[in-house]
Design a protein that fits this description.
CATH class of one domain: Mainly Alpha
Order of helices and strands: HH
CATH architecture of one domain: Up-down Bundle
Shape: rod-shaped
Number of strands: 0
Strand content: under 5%
Number of helices: 2
Structural class: mainly alpha
Oligomer: single chain
């Protein structure tokens, strides 16, 4: 294995790791914020718990797509470049 090839492999690994690390921060903060506020709303008005729960789950599912996209990009970096 040549030195340039080894550097390219290491660069791909570092790039994929950064892609996943940075790409996972946003969904984690967003989902934590959404769930925290939904639970706060459920505690204040228990009669709206069903509506809040449905909206919270939908919001978390939409937010999680960002993490899935970053996983896809990380795989593309690792296996196609």
């Amino acid at each position: 294995m040549e030195f340039a090839e080894a550097i390219a492999i290491a660069g791909k690994a570092i790039g994929a790791g950064l892609c996943m690390g940075i790409g996972a921060i946003g969904p984690a903060i967003g989902e934590g914020n959404a769930v925290g506020h939904a639970l706060d709303g459920m505690a204040r008005q228990p009669e709206t718990a069903d509506n809040l729960r449905i909206n919270m789950i939908l919001g978390c599912a939409i937010t999680e797509t960002t993490g899935i996209y970053s996983l896809l990009i990380a795989f593309l970096i690792l296996f196609t470049l």
